[in-house]
Amino acid sequence: MGPLAQPTGSQLTHDSGPTARLEMTGINVAFGGVLALTDVSLVVEPGQVHGLIGPNGAGKTTLFNVACGLVRPTSGRITWRGEEMRRLRPSQLTKLGVARTLQGVGLFPGMTVLENVMVGAHRHGKAGFLSAFLALPSSDKDERLLRERAMRALTELNAERYAGRYPGSLPYPVQKRVALARALVAEPDLLLLDEPASGLAEDEMHELGELIRSVVGRMSVLLVEHHMDLVMRVCDQITVLDSGKQIAAGTPEQVQNDPAVTEAYLGDAVDAEADAAELSNVDGGRTHG
Ligand SMILES: Nc1ncnc2c1ncn2[C@@H]1O[C@H](COP(=O)(O)OP(=O)(O)OP(=O)(O)O)[C@@H](O)[C@H]1O
């Protein structure tokens, strides 16, 4: 389920107004015997950046995947623009005004950067996804418009000079920018970002933060991210998960000052330290024993 699902009502049309609100309520997800999410609720308000944070294994990616329809919750309710969603196919995301970037970059290796971004523009191009994908636009005019939109998106991401290159020949941070251009070119009302800053250098992360803030007038954003400074800088609201449960929610300031959050992260750090100590003992044993 998720915005990928068909609305149970009749409205499938584009609505970029203030009703563009994603609401997930009482979400439970079980993978076999593992409870990945227990009674989690989260609302992405129109025009806001909502951060989703938590230590490793907290359930962030699972909730993100619920929001984009890749994981079907065991129970719970998802509404998008006031319409309850039921089971749907990922191909419907764009039509519903939702775009996402996943942890992996996910570009098509056999297509140029420009063609990759053109694929993302199909929501607005009359030529349609299949035509764009097969490079068979229904008309020269359609193709020209599609190209112009894609170039504009690449320019916004400062990646226009790579338009004719193939993704595999580009550094990882550039590939990430192209993936973001592909998501933005559809002009979504909701942008879902899963760890967009991973693998980025400090200055690139700063640029990413500015970019996220710059699109907020046009869309809302759900951001899963480990880099706390980025999250605290760009988010209006934050939900914190730990072991599949929501342990805090609020503004960056509220969340930062919440003892439950400190404890969850501290616990994680202490575990990591213990693991590291254990590892160094093992290593020491092997080397010197
Ligand atoms: N497909 C799956 N099958 C079984 N268990 C899964 C699956 N996906 C996730 N899990 C489990 O669900 C829990 C939540 O995982 P999830 O990846 O959502 O956490 P996360 O907060 O995104 O972690 P990280 O920050 O390490 O990416 C973990 O215990 C994980 O092992």
Write up this protein.
With 289 residues, this protein is α/β, with parallel strands linked by helices. It folds into two domains: 1-97 and 188-252, Rossmann fold (3-Layer(aba) Sandwich); 107-187, no CATH class. 37% of the residues lie in helices and 23% in strands. It is built from nine helices and eleven strands. It has a six-stranded mixed sheet with strand order 7-8-9-4-10-11, sandwiched between helices. Adenosine-5'-triphosphate binds at residues 31, 34, 36, 54, 56-62. Keywords: ATP-binding, Nucleotide-binding, Transport.
What's the helical proportion of residues? 25-40%
Q: What does the main sheet amount to?
A: 6 strands, mixed
In N-to-C order, the SSE pattern is: EEEEHEEEHHHHEHEHEEHH
Runs with pLDDT <50, length 5+?
Answer: 1-18, 124-132, 282-289
- Portion of residues in beta strands equals 15-25%
What is the CATH top level name of the largest domain? Answer: Alpha Beta
Specify the structural class: alpha/beta
CATH superfamily of the largest domain: P-loop containing nucleotide triphosphate hydrolases
Q: State mean pLDDT (0 to 100 scale).
A: 80
What's the CATH topology label of the largest domain? Rossmann fold
Shape summary: globular
Question: Quick one: how many beta strands?
Answer: 11
Widest beta sheet: strand line-up: 7-8-9-4-10-11
